[in-house]
Amino acid sequence: WLDSSLKFSNHIDKISSKISAAISVISKVSSYLSIDQRKMLYNALVLPYFNYCSITWSTTDQKYLNVLEKLQKSAARMVLCVPSRTRPREVYSRLNWTDLQTKWKINRCLMVHKCLNNNVPEYLQNHFNYVNRRYNTRQSENLSIPRNRTVQGQRSFKYTGTKDYNSIPQNLKSIESHQSFKRNVKGHFQDLYKQM
What are the CA-CA distances from residue 12 to residues 7, 47, 164 (Å)? Predict the structure, then answer.
């Protein structure tokens, strides 16, 4: 849902209410379910709201994203059936999850990988350019960062996707298979999150 200033506040308001409703439903039946069943319900009823089109809206104002992160923490505690005071990092660690910011970085890297391998519509295929591939240097697998002076420009997928992709190790960038890239990038960001 778009608003006139592209802050995605309307979108986040709408999905927040839907996520809250889904968490409430799971919570009511959680005592009858195993942890694996609660995870399945989370994956079916909650996770799609965090992921759907997140490449477009996940770089909005932090105050809007904090609302979603709070819901994610609540959902994680509900899946594990732990008290509301339990620290999020402990809960995420037990579930092998990350925070939403990390999840969205993974999503952006996956989309950039698809763009670079022409597995996207034509209008996205030339979205990213390598710095200079004529010379085999450490930077030859990096993407050229677009020049954006405005805050809005720096929130664009082209800008954030480039920055996130450039942050991953060079050996991951050389993986051609999307499934293998997905598995390795998720592992990379999960390890980084655990070290934070």
Answer: 9, 14, 23
